[in-house]
User: Which sequence fits this backbone?
């Protein structure tokens, strides 16, 4: 019985190994060229409820609280509307509006936080970036904003975060 | 450990090519031609084309052993992940470095052998009758191997890992799975923390465990499943992998930097070719998911679409193996 791989087999194995060695790290692929950069607006925010619980309603709620099931006894969560306002967001770069939209609160009942991630590719250079946010939808106006001239280097990612009432820029 | 090839029978095609649907015949012709050539080059019993299933297990266990060693030193934090893998590669050139390279190249071998195995099975028409189970479980194994390999690159957390993470995030965010975009992890000042690496490591450990079970089911209805190649082939493969690891060691790229977009990256084309493809042709994640679902959905119907005559019944006296 044969116990060794013949030379022809070794040549095939060496060729396959060379192929695997090459193909697992070459050739390189360029995903983003040096003349591009990215603006990323990314944050988590919780907007106010559409119907806040008035004091009188809270009192009556608390009075009858013990008759409710345990999971419905949290007055803050159960009194008033669960639904929250949508967030209005507008992103403008060099006077051009790149994003203008209302973002609904997450969850089936629109009662949890809003997660924002807007990414825009920009040419390298200085750009005036304006980000505006409103907590009561577009109709409620944009109460929070930041406008700033930012220098975008080759393949830079500049992130803007919002932590009420401030915007934070990560350059 | 390694099994010998006692009384290895002459290998003859287990399926009459004229019983195959016309569309499969060119693929089957190529399979037979390469098989005959390799029979001559390797001396018939050690032809790897006839031991693809066994080779798959060989690469799998190589990955388990080398991966276990790497885990001893791996730190599941954004800073530690890159540092520990780099230290392993450079600080322990002849142990850790080789283990890492073995892990890299065995994963490449696994993908290559799996793809050849799928080709071999499909163009031999071996998907009908009792083989439907092996075909269907194989369809589950393939994406798991792909995910395992690609997520392994993310764990290194160099520029290539960050690129893969960005692309994964795009894909996952196209699915209505989570409220928070996964891609927020990879934005400067975002939510990236050690939990991400813990989750990644957890998946990297759990998926192989699941693979063992699925591959066990995969072999269930086969009369003589090959779960380890013949001895000389094992040694030849081990020597080849070691030589590759010594002469072309796997190394990390520059560390992942969330403040910069991915530029030119040396990518693993066996696992990551879909990323540049999607990038070059601006293929949306939704289209990618739809296309993948369509391809796998179509492949899942093959056992029932292929005419009965094409079903391969591998009789022991024919020496049919896979």
Assistant:
């Amino acid at each position: 019985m044969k116990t060794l791989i013949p030379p022809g087999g070794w040549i095939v194995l060496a060729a396959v190994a060379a192929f695997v060695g090459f193909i697992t790290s070459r050739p390189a692929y360029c995903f983003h060229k040096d003349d591009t950069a990215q603006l990323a607006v990314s944050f988590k925010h919780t907007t106010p409820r559409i119907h806040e619980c008035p004091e009188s309603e809270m009192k009556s709620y608390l009075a009858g609280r013990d008759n409710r099931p345990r999971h419905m006894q949290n007055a803050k969560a159960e009194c008033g509307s669960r639904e929250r306002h949508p967030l209005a967001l507008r992103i403008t770069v060099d006077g051009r509006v790149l994003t203008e939209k209302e973002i609904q609160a997450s969850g089936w009942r629109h009662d949890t936080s809003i997660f924002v991630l807007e990414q825009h590719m920009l040419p390298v250079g200085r750009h005036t970036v304006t980000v505006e946010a409103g907590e009561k939808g577009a109709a409620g106006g944009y109460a929070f904003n930041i406008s700033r001239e930012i220098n975008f280097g080759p393949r830079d990612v500049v992130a803007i975060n919002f932590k009420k009432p401030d915007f934070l820029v990560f350059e | 450990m390694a099994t010998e090839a006692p009384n290895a029978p002459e290998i003859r095609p287990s399926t009459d090519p004229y019983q195959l649907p016309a569309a499969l015949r060119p693929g089957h012709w190529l399979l037979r031609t390469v098989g005959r050539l390799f029979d001559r080059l390797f001396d018939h019993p050690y032809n790897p084309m006839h031991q693809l299933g066994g080779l798959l297990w060989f690469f799998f266990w190589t990955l388990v052993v080398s991966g276990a060693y790497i885990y001893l030193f791996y730190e599941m934090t954004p800073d530690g992940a890159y540092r520990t893998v780099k230290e392993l590669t450079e600080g322990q050139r002849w142990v850790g470095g080789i283990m890492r390279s073995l892990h890299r190249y065995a994963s490449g071998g696994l993908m290559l052998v799996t793809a050849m195995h799928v080709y071999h099975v499909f163009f031999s028409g071996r998907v009908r009758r009792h083989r439907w189970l092996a075909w269907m479980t194989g369809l589950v194994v393939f994406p798991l191997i792909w995910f395992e390999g690609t997520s392994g690159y993310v764990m290194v957390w160099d520029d290539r890992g960050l690129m893969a993470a960005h692309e994964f995030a795009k894909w996952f965010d196209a699915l209505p799975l989570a409220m928070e975009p996964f891609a927020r992890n990879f934005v400067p000042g975002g939510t990236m923390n050690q939990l991400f690496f813990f989750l990644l490591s957890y998946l990297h450990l759990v998926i192989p465990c699941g693979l063992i079970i699925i591959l066990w089911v995969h072999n269930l209805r086969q009369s003589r499943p090959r779960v380890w190649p013949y001895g000389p082939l094992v040694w030849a493969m081990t020597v080849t992998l070691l030589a590759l690891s010594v002469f072309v060691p796997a190394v990390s790229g520059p560390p992942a930097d969330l403040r910069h977009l991915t530029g030119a990256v040396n990518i693993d084309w066996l696992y990551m070719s879909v990323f540049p493809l999607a990038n070059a042709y601006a293929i949306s994640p939704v289209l990618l998911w739809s296309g993948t679902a369509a391809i796998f959905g179509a492949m899942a119907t093959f056992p029932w679409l292929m005419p009965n005559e094409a079903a391969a019944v591998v009789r022991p006296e024919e020496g049919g193996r896979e």
Notes: Residues 23-311 of chain B form a domain with the Cytochrome Bc1 Complex; Chain C fold (CATH 1.20.810.10). Chain B touches chain A through 53 residues (CB under 8 Å). The radius of gyration of chain B is 21 Å. Chain B has eleven helices and one strand.
